[in-house]
Design brief:
alpha/beta, FAD/NAD(P)-binding domain, 6-stranded parallel β-sheet
Length: 598
């Protein structure tokens, strides 16, 4: 059931068994999972079904942080959350990520790989990315080939896979289920501004929430889940300081610290000596038709022996903006992306990443590339355009152009090593709802750069030893170039750190805030290290795990709702029955306007 927060009365009281703050991927997964088990869930979302500039501005940060992406590029306040901007890449963390390592300052996860790996398949099902198999050797259709023929996995592996979802926009994909569910009430346009604890400070008493037009609401539940993104979850805890002056969960001074992104760079190309036609440079599809991509990765033994960050490298196209690539296809894509319609093709952050350059780019050389290769460019435009934008079902995540020289630019993607100086801080500046805005301080250390260089050298060594090729740096000073490319903000991890002991973090191994038994955080901000993987897939795996735990805590108190069942508002009393809990308003006339939308 969907309710528009703009239609509720000022002073509305909302109650349920579980209140979830944020209808992004984690919030939707938790709400629908608990609803399927018969629990009544209230899902509170700041945004609505589409983009709203005023709502989005609530997420703006303040201060100068040159390495941090603007929040309107990094997040989306809407039903579905930042999955509206997500490319769809699905990758789990690795076993070594959960082990203490000298390189990560011996950061300690309070959970093991074995504690979360059983939830990978269910995460795949939510993401719609097929089976939880992330190694080409486990897939019969892919097992007999390698990125380059003859490559043997050892310290460097070429069998690592990433999976790609449709891409799955969680608001669109699961919106119909949210509307049909008699156990979920999704209130859009309502922003939680404070988590209020009981006087004892050890349990949440209620949530305070507001709409942009000034209406207030109170939420009460047995269990509460903060699932409003990495920065926003942290900000809400900082703002909830009525009984915890330094911020809720900041008992150890760890709230807001250990902010992590990823280290990304393009500084080298792989030059293979194998037959060019045998190189796997593009996406492939597994037996179920799911798109996958191979990457070079490093074994646990190699990471330990050579002090390597957990990282991967994969083949990419040359820079689109540089017409020296000589490709009509790449020039066509560049011209489309920099056109006034460019924002319609990909998310703005991705568009900027692919069209960036060091200076002005003349258009004529790109048109010349088109004129030199009209037929191949037209064939690409028709085939890829149909597959990407018109085909129903799975769509190609991207495209790659083969090179006759068998040389390919490499994308490096590695973990950002945790540092307490990389952090978030609340400021005195307030947003339109009166919440303190955050200041970001995203810092990268010397070891982030050195680790990336070591990874490139290990891949070069493996290719040379196997007689398959070599790496060549495409910049004069690789170290300086990596430093120039360091940036983040799209993947937000670390600032509500998970820990086994309250002195070391914000939440425990069950994602419950230390010392506050009925408050949980379902966000990538709980991650202790950032891995080589982007955040979304692992966040969903943890969300599924948390939903199972909340179900056990609540008990199977009600039978699962019948498919398509609807809950009706009682016009006589202004109350909607929520199996023992009540949705109440202060005025009958206002209640009658709070009809389901969607």
């Amino acid at each position: 059931m969907l309710l528009d927060g703009r239609a509720i009365a000022d002073g509305t009281r909302l109650t349920a068994e579980v209140a979830v703050i944020g209808a992004g991927p984690a919030g939707i997964v938790i709400a629908l999972s608990l609803a399927a088990s018969g629990h009544r869930v209230l899902l509170v979302e700041s945004g609505a079904r589409g983009f709203d500039a005023a709502t989005q501005r609530l997420a703006d940060t303040v201060g100068e942080d040159p390495r941090h992406a603007p929040m309107h590029l990094a997040t989306r306040r809407a039903i579905g959350g930042t999955s509206e901007l997500w490319g769809g890449r699905c990758v789990p963390f690795d076993r070594i990520d959960f082990e203490p390592r000298e390189l990560t300052g011996n950061a300690r996860w309070p959970v093991r790989y074995e504690d979360v790996e059983p939830f990978f398949q269910r995460a795949c099902e939510w993401c719609l990315c097929g089976d939880a198999r992330f190694d080409a050797r486990e897939i019969p259709q892919l097992a007999d080939r390698a990125i380059v023929p003859g490559f043997r996995d050892g310290d460097v592996r070429a069998s690592s896979l990433e999976r790609w979802s449709l891409p799955t926009r969680f608001g669109r994909e699961y919106g119909p289920r949210l509307r049909r569910s008699s156990n979920v009430t999704l209130v859009s346009g309502l922003t939680c501004t404070e988590i209020v604890c009981a006087d004892s400070g050890d349990r949440v008493d209620r949530l305070e929430a507001r709409t942009l037009d000034g209406r207030r609401a109170t939420v009460r539940a047995r269990e509460y889940v903060v699932a409003c993104g990495g920065l926003e979850s942290t900000r809400l805890l900082f703002a909830s300081n009525r009984h915890h002056p330094d911020g809720l969960g900041n008992h150890s001074g760890q709230l807001g610290k250990w902010y992590m992104a990823h280290v990304t760079a393009r500084v080298a190309e792989a030059r293979f000596t194998t037959p060019p036609e045998a190189t796997i440079y593009d996406h492939e599809r597994d037996g179920a038709g799911v798109y996958v991509r191979r990457r070079f990765s490093f074994s646990d033994r190699a990471q330990a022996a050579h002090n390597l960050p957990n990282s991967v490298l994969w083949l990419v196209n040359p820079p689109l903006a540089d017409p020296a690539h000589g490709s009509g296809i790449l020039s066509l894509v560049y011209l489309l992306l920099v056109s006034p319609l460019g924002h319609r093709f990909v998310a703005e952050a991705i568009r900027r990443d692919h069209t960036g350059s060091d200076g002005p780019v003349p258009r004529w050389p790109h048109f010349r590339n088109l004129l030199r290769q009209p037929l191949s460019t037209l064939r690409f435009a028709l085939s890829f355009g149909f597959g990407r934008y018109l085909r129903r079902g799975r769509r190609p995540p991207g495209f790659f152009v083969p090179t006759a020289s068998n040389a390919y630019l490499l994308q490096y993607h590695g973990e950002h090593l945790p540092s307490p100086g990389s952090c978030l801080k609340p400021t005195s500046e307030r947003d339109a709802l009166g919440m303190p805005r955050l200041e970001t301080r995203l810092e990268f250390g010397d070891e982030d750069v050195a680790g990336a260089l070591r990874a490139h050298h290990r891949l070069d060594r493996a290719l040379r030893q196997q007689g398959l090729g070599r790496l060549e740096f495409v910049v004069d000073d690789p170290e300086a170039s990596i430093r120039e490319q360091l940036s983040g903000g799209l993947h937000q991890a670390g600032t509500t750190r998970m820990s086994g002991h309250p002195d070391d973090g914000v939440v425990d191994e069950h994602l419950a805030v230390h010392g506050v038994g009925n408050l949980h955080v379902a966000s990538s901000s709980v991650f202790v290290t950032s891995s080589q993987a982007n955040s979304t897939f692992m966040l969903i795996a943890f969300a599924v795990r948390l939903a199972d735990r909340l179900h056990r805590r609540l008990g199977n108190r009600a039978a699962p709702a019948a498919p398509g069942a609807e809950r009706k508002l009682n016009g006589e009393s202004g109350v909607a029955d929520m199996s023992g809990a009540k949705w109440q308003t202060t005025a009958r006339s206002e209640s009658s306007r709070a009809s389901p939308s969607g």
